[in-house]
Design brief:
439 residues, alpha/beta, Rossmann fold, Transcription Regulator spoIIAA, five-stranded mixed barrel, binds 5'-deoxyadenosine, binds iron/sulfur cluster
Length: 439
């Protein structure tokens, strides 16, 4: 029976968004339903991110603000999960006396028990890593939301230890899920009406590499493509070092695999890439981009770039700009470097001022804005196959995604929701396209 409300705020990456959905599913069994109103909630949970310093401070501020909802006489529960929880552990309980629960990235399965305890006034922190086979059975699936597109986690954690990144410390060792479990979940989702699967992992294309009995990521994609009812496959986030020829070939012969890829370069300079411990260089990255463009004409790239990495010279930065011009990303996620505790790069001396970093960021963003505009304008007049997912922003509009991942809004009847339609593009915006049904 649903008789309690949970308000959940999620920071950071898609992993966290996915974990939040799983938490809501799990706590549904304890009688909790989601609400958007913190003041009405019986429980408030923050699912946090610590990839960049700013994100972490945001969590601390938010926690202080949430304190006001902890009213006398009402046993409202407040909890923190995700990467900040993993990093800080019990310290959070000490720092914030009104906090009841702290749960790490490997401990979601303990949450129902922790919540039951908190309902009785217990305060508890659980942040132990589970780096053994048992973890494979702790991937609870997400139920109860009928949607056309769903994420399916295929691996968790990261073993790459890029020198700037905290993820391997807060998400733990890389582990690949059993392909049989993945395929069962995909089939169930297809039966529920899901048409698009987004395969999810911190380093998704290293899937299966460390387990002889499991397929490679390329083979897994081919197996998912066999599942009846699934029409589209995407994946995120991929590491350039694991962009194998076999995976590149999937973009040529697996027609269900969409023509869109998130392939973070981080920098265009070999010297910086080496200090970042990215294990590829500019040329090998660009070679993969060229191959992908050759096998899938029109493929759309998105990426991540860090500016102001310790020791990044003007020349290094110019190389990043020229890489961006060569790849021509449709969207770029740009980050100003921030040192993270415990990482290798946190020991590197930083010479650049904040304003120097910001000046570089501005140049990068200006260049990207121009490239985005040029690419999007090229869509005008052409047809895009749109998977219609819901109503659009304006009355009378419906909305969906093109194969390349762009959101397309257009005037149309609601009964088209759930189907694939060819839409002619009339206008381009930075983040979406405006289309019309061909007459
Ligand atoms: N500083 C700035 N950006 C970072 N990222 C990861 N760690 C840091 C850091 N310390 C960025 C990378 C990564 C994205 C998710 O966040 O670009 O791909
Ligand atoms: Fe972080 Fe590098 Fe792993 Fe990505 S691949 S999560 S940037 S360590």
């Amino acid at each position: 029976m649903i008789d309690k409300l949970i308000y959940m705020e999620t920071f950071g990456c898609q992993m966290n968004v996915n974990d939040s959905e799983r938490i809501i599913t799990m706590l549904g069994d304890l009688g909790y339903a989601a609400t958007n109103e913190p003041s009405a909630a019986d429980m408030i949970l923050l699912n946090t991110c610590s990839v960049r310093g700013g994100a972490e401070e945001k969590v601390y501020k938010r926690l202080q603000n949430l304190k006001i909802y902890k009213r006398d006489g009402k046993s409202q529960i407040i909890g923190v999960g995700g990467c900040v929880a993993q990093q800080e552990g019990e310290e959070l309980l000490k720092k914030f006396p009104f906090l009841d629960l702290v749960f790490g990235t490997h401990n979601l399965h303990l949450l129902p028990d922790m919540v039951r305890g908190a309902e009785q006034g217990e305060r508890r922190s659980e942040t132990a890593f589970i780096d053994n086979e048992q973890r494979l059975d702790l991937f609870p699936s997400i139920k109860g939301k009928s949607r056309l597109s769903r994420f399916v986690t295929v691996m968790q954690g990261c073993d790459n230890f890029c020198s700037y990144c905290i993820v391997p410390y807060v998400r733990g060792r890389e582990i690949s899920r059993r392909s049989s479990d993945i395929l069962t979940e995909v089939s169930q989702l297809a039966d529920e009406g899901v048409r698009e699967i987004v395969l999810l992992g911190q380093n998704v294309n290293s899937y299966g590499l460390k387990v002889d009995s499991e397929p490679t990521f390329a083979e897994l994609i081919r197996q998912v493509a066999e599942v009846q009812g699934i029409e589209r496959i995407r994946f995120t986030t991929s590491h350039p070092k694991d962009m194998s020829d076999d995976l590149i070939a999937c973009f040529s012969d697996v027609t269900k695999l969409c023509g869109q890829i998130h392939l973070p370069a981080q920098s265009g300079s070999d010297a910086v890439l080496q200090r970042m411990k990215r294990v590829y260089n500019r040329e090998s990255y660009l070679e993969k981009v060229r191959k992908l463009k050759a096998v899938r004409p029109g493929i759309v790239f998105t990426g991540d770039i860090i500016v102001g990495f310790p020791g990044e010279t003007d020349e290094d930065f110019e190389k990043t700009l020229s890489l961006i011009e060569e790849v021509r990303y449709i969207d770029l996620f740009t980050f100003v470097y921030s040192p993270r505790p415990g990482t290798k790069a946190a020991e590197f001396p930083e010479e650049m001022t904040r304003s120097q970093k910001m000046a570089r960021l501005d140049r990068l963003m200006a260049l990207q804005k121009q490239i985005n505009l040029e690419i999007c304008n090229e869509y005008i007049g052409g047809l895009q196959s749109v998977m219609v997912e819901g109503e659009g922003k304006l009355p009378g509009q419906i909305s969906g995604k093109a194969d390349n991942g762009r959101i397309v809004n257009f005037s149309g009847k609601k009964n088209l929701i759930g189907s694939f339609v060819d839409v002619r593009i009339a206008k381009a915006y930075p983040n979406s396209l405006l289309g019309e049904l061909p007459k």
